């Protein structure tokens, strides 16, 4: 990457922020009295373990955070962002089932941040390929581990 400091960090949702596919879950999700997210059968759902910590630290470092997701059940995706109490971290949320270059064109139009000052984390190599063609710096997430603070540090502060 050129010596341009990133301003915006963009995240996929399924298998990056949380370890499941929203479109394949038994909905509706509910929030129980202990604030646990559960499906209709009572199975509990969580974020990947380091996501909360990573979002908190990145927001403290004043990065603009955003979501780019192709989930078809848009309403449930927003509901989960609220149930997991992470929606407030994201300045821009783009969720709709199109090629992700569309999401990034809108992120660029809404924020006026150039593509080369955006970083994108996603577990799907097809999304990584299409978004990197725009000039966004892309990083592939391992779908069994999800987003970790270490993965973020490796890119943002490689000397630490
Ligand atoms: Mg994904």
CATH topology annotation of the domain at 1-48 and 56-88: Rossmann fold
Bound molecules: magnesium ion
Summarize the biggest pleated sheet.
Answer: 5 strands, parallel
First-residue to last-residue Cα separation: 18 Å
Count of helical stretches: 5
Written as H for each helix and E for each strand, in order along the chain, the element string is EEEEHEHEHEHEH
Taken as a percent bin, the fraction of beta residues is 15-25%
Question: Which runs of at least 5 residues are low in confidence (pLDDT < 50)?
Answer: none
**Which strand order spans the largest sheet, edge to edge or round the barrel?**
6-5-1-7-8
| Quantity of strands, as a count | 8
Quick recap:
The chain is of the alpha/beta class and 160 residues long.
What key phrases describe this protein's structure?
160 residues; alpha/beta; 5-stranded parallel β-sheet; 3-stranded antiparallel β-sheet; 5 helices; 8 strands; 30% helix; globular; binds magnesium ion
What layout of secondary structure does this protein have?
Layout: E1 8-11, E2 30-31, E3 37-38, E4 44-45, H1 51-60, E5 64-69, H2 74-83, E6 90-95, H3 100-111, E7 118-122, H4 125-132, E8 137-140, H5 149-156
Parallel strand pairs: 1-5, 1-7, 5-6, 7-8
Antiparallel strand pairs: 2-3, 3-4
Magnesium ion is lined by residues 12, 14-16, 122-124.
């Amino acid at each position: 990457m050129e010596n341009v400091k990133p301003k915006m960090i963009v995240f996929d949702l399924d298998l990056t922020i949380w370890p499941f596919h929203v479109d394949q879950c038994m909905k509706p999700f509910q929030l129980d009295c202990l604030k646990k997210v559960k499906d209709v059968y009572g199975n509990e759902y969580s974020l990947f373990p380091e996501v909360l910590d990573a979002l908190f630290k990145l927001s403290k470092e004043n990065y603009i955070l955003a979501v780019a997701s192709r989930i078809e059940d848009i309403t449930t995706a927003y509901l989960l962002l609220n149930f997991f109490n992470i929606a407030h971290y994201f300045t821009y949320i783009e969720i709709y089932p199109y090629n992700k270059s569309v999401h990034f064109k809108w992120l660029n139009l809404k924020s006026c941040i150039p593509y080369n000052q955006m970083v994108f984390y996603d577990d799907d190599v097809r999304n990584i390929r299409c978004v990197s063609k725009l000039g966004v710096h892309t990083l592939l997430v391992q779908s069994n581990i999800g987003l970790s603070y270490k993965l973020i540090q490796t890119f943002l502060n490689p000397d630490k």
